[in-house]
Amino acid sequence: MDTHHFSIQRACRCIKLARSAWYKPLVNGLERDRVLIESLSTLAEQKPGLGFWKLFRRLRRQGYRWNHKRVWRVYCVLKLNRKRRRKQRIPTRTPMPLSTPARPNQVWSADFVSDALYSGTRFRTFNVLDDFNREALAIEVDTSLPSARLVRVFEQLKAERGLPEALRTDNGPEFLGQCFTQWCSDNGITIDYIEPGKPNQNAYIERFNRSYRTELLDTWLFKDLDEVRAMTWAWMLEYNQERDHDSLGGMTPIEALKNTEFSTFELSP
């Protein structure tokens, strides 16, 4: 092999390399991003259902100031990015408009979610959501949740928070039972039933149910109902106090509620 004795300046010019790049020390990318890799991996392992932007904002809340491009590069290197589902071709539909309430306790949404224990025993959860700030108000867990049980849940919420003006639900038998409908009538709650086969008219609770199923029910195997209740309670606290929402301007449900209360206080005479 021939050896050519060129100056650094001439050698860099031949291969079109800047001399600053020659003198710049080599940087180990793994060592440079080690803290980011460890922080992002830990967060993604704890919350496998969260996407990139929610993980990025959580890193910001923890005090890290990495920009989104650097975090996205590491996010892709760790292969945390998932393929998006392709939209299915469906007929053109005209869904009912879903308005956002102007204040808390104006409209609540309620729905059921079904799952099973490790032993195969089926159980259900009754989820209640405030549409104004997407706050999870209650998640009742049991093998059977009749109308009388729903009344008990709302009685507890009545003592803690008050009751809504309207409740949006589907046409399930629990919501049509006389025990529940009579209790709502006595307490001044209007039940807003959606059209059969159109869950998009109750989109807020449907979106909440998806997060609940993806982040908890589909992630863990439960041995008994007590374990489901304990983990559900911890997840609900984290959802209300730490999970930011794009529809709320990046705020958590509790932050949105406090911000509303503060604005009301400031505007009151």
Class of secondary structure makeup: alpha/beta
The major beta sheet can be summarized as:
5 strands, mixed
End-to-end C-alpha gap: 89 Å
DSSP helix fraction: 40-55%
Mass-distribution shape: elongated
Query: Secondary-structure element order, as H and E?
Result: HHHHHHEEEHEHHEHHH
| Percent of residues in beta strands | 5-15%
Number of helices: 12
What is the CA-based Rg, rounded? 26 Å
Structure notes:
Helix content is 46%, strand content 13%. It has 269 residues and is an alpha/beta fold. A five-stranded mixed sheet has the order 3-2-1-4-5, sandwiched between helices. Helix 4 (34-46) packs across helix 5 (52-61) and helix 7 packs parallel to helix 9. It is elongated, with a radius of gyration of 26 Å.
Jot down its keywords:
269 residues, alpha/beta, five-stranded mixed sheet, 13% strand, disordered C terminus
Topology, pairings included?
Elements: H1 8-14, H2 19-23, H3 29-32, H4 34-46, H5 52-61, H6 68-77, E1 107-116, E2 122-130, E3 135-142, H7 147-160, E4 166-169, H8 173-176, H9 178-186, E5 190-193, H10 203-217, H11 225-241, H12 253-267
